[in-house]
Design a protein that fits this description.
The chain has 207 residues and is mainly α. 68% of the residues lie in helices and 0% in strands. The N and C termini lie far apart (76 Å).
Length: 207
């Protein structure tokens, strides 16, 4: 029988071979972070990254967005570390506050993309009118081109929503897809389409 490997541990339970920052108390790590210790960002992310990601994922319901928010939170925390005062509260709580603000920003951006796409889709669905400007016509062309580039499932969901005015529940019944799948296709399609339209400058509908 092979000898059982024994890992030496300090009284606090942390393996003796662990990096020095893993042995720091939260307060000391926070102080080093606030002081600009270049080794501290990785340590702070290692200690609180899972918490930030979990909060973001639960609020946004999207893995990619949660990952983006998590990265944004720690980047913002490092850049704004001068605003953190250890004597006024724990670093973990401060990070949670930043996380909530970044989640709100992500939700606002999601809403803006959805409104942008829906408004552009509504304009496109009625076709050109005598009052349309050249810019509006071009916007509809851009929307059609970007919609055609979406994966087939996302394109079908958004087409049924825009042009047939179906709810997500009705789309699920029509396609036979689970409602959760329809919602996922709609969310991802809107995110991708919204980003493309913003890049092309399609905006101002409904104002």
């Amino acid at each position: 029988m092979a000898a059982q490997q024994v890992t030496e541990r300090a009284p606090d339970g942390v393996p003796l071979w662990a990096p020095a920052w893993e042995r720091l108390a939260d307060e000391e790590l926070a102080a080093r972070f606030a002081a600009g210790d270049e080794a501290s960002p990785a340590a702070v992310y290692h200690r609180w990254g899972a918490l930030v990601y979990t909060l973001a994922q639960r609020s946004l319901g999207d893995v990619r967005e949660a990952e983006d928010v998590t990265q944004t939170v720690f980047l913002a925390a490092w850049r704004g570390r001068a605003g953190f005062a250890p004597e006024r509260g724990a670093l973990g709580a401060w990070l949670v506050g930043i996380t909530r603000r970044k989640i709100a920003d992500a939700l606002s951006a999601r809403t803006r993309r959805a409104e942008l796409v829906a408004a552009a889709g509504a304009r496109m669905s009625v076709g050109p009118t005598a009052h349309d400007t050249q810019s509006a016509v071009l916007d509809r062309v851009v929307l059609g081109e970007e919609l055609a580039r979406l994966p087939a499932a996302q394109r079908r969901v958004l087409t049924l929503a825009f042009y047939d005015d179906l709810t997500q529940t009705q789309i699920a019944e029509l396609t036979g897809w689970p409602l959760g799948t329809v919602k996922s296709h709609a969310r991802r399609g809107l995110q991708r389409l919204g980003r493309c339209l913003e890049e092309h400058g399609v905006q101002g509908y409904g104002e």
